Amino acid sequence: MEVYIEYVILDNLIMDFLLLKETAKLLKLKYKNLQIFIGAIIGTVGAIVFPLLKILPLYVFLLKILLGLLITFVAIKHNRVFDYIKYFNVFLLFTFLLGGAIIGIFYVAGIDIKTYGNRQSGFIPVGVTILLGYLIVFGVKKLLNGAVKGLMTDRYKYNCIIKCGDVAVKVSGYYDSGNLLIDDKTGLPIALCKRKIIDKIRKCGGDIKSTREIDFSTVTKEGKLKLYNIDCILIELKKGNKRTNCLLGEVDNKSIKEELLLGAYVM
User: Fold this and answer.
1) What stretch of H or E contains 43?
2) Is 67 exposed, middle or buried (0-12, 13-18, 19+ CB in 10 A)?
3) Is the CB of residue 194 less than 8 Å from the CB of residue 259?
4) Cα–Cα distance measured from residue 98 to residue 93, given in angstroms and rounded to the nearest whole number
């Protein structure tokens, strides 16, 4: 049986790269394209070699799980074991959902997935495959984002009041364990807020000005973070309000979904 091996390689390489990268984005993990590409290459090699092995299907399944553990370990630098396990599980879920979607597309298109790539059965052009991959990844990512957002309970949401002089502004704050920002100059923790919160304080008559900027780095970009002095943030807890001295770090309205992100040092 003759196979378009170049298409099989390209399909697997592109899909693995997309899955690894989008999983990192979904979990807000820092990533490097080169590392993800190496992980995708390892996954592609496995996808080519495994069908050639004359072993029981159960062993092939176990090998695929081990391969998934390997490529998710290589693709991202993990600081904690828990982060690695979470990344692997979300990648696995992503893969199953994407695989199911592809099977559905093949069925509608009348293509036998068992003989895909066979010169007698034909193939889908790589450009079409890439387009389908992006569309599926986009849809699955939206689905997973909605699921993750749906798991956000009131346990992580707090009613807050930002006090700046005679002005008090009510906002919704979310606890973000990944926010470990501290201002080196003052030693105060930094709570991230949307630009519209700064505008709201000013609109209410608050005299709030940016004191300086600091360098920051996130999953998607690097740049400067504007810092603002405030009197405090009052956080509503079950046992009463907690007063926290901190700085506000302004980000544009599209960078975060929440109005205010409270870091571990703020809480």
Assistant:
1) helix 33-49
2) middle
3) yes
4) 8
CB atoms within 10 A of CB 239: 5
Residue 17 parent element (H or E): helix 5-26
Which tokens hold the place of 146? Answer: 């909605």
The structure's pTM equals 0.52
The residue count of the chain comes to: 267
Structure confidence by residue, pLDDT tens digits, 27-59 = 778 888 999 999 989 988 888 888 788 888 888
- Dist. CA 208–CA 198, nearest whole Å: 8
Pairing of strands 157-164, 167-175: antiparallel
Residue in the block written with tokens 């502004």: 169
How far does CA 147 lie from the centroid of its chain? 13
SS3 131: helix
Handedness of CA 98, 99, 103, 106 (dihedral sign): positive
Can you tell me the distance from the alpha carbon of 230 to that of 209, in angstroms, rounded to the nearest whole number? 9
Residue 181 CB: number of other CB atoms within 10 A?
Answer: 22
What are the distances in angstroms from CA 265 to CA 83, 181, 255, 256? 20, 8, 21, 19
pLDDT digits (tens, 9 = 90+) for 70-109: 999 999 888 888 888 888 888 888 777 766 656 565 555 5
- Here the tokens at position 99 are 């695989």
> From edge to edge, which strands make up the β-sheet containing 210-217?
210-217, 222-229, 247-251, 190-194, 260-262, 167-175, 157-164, 232-237, 240-244
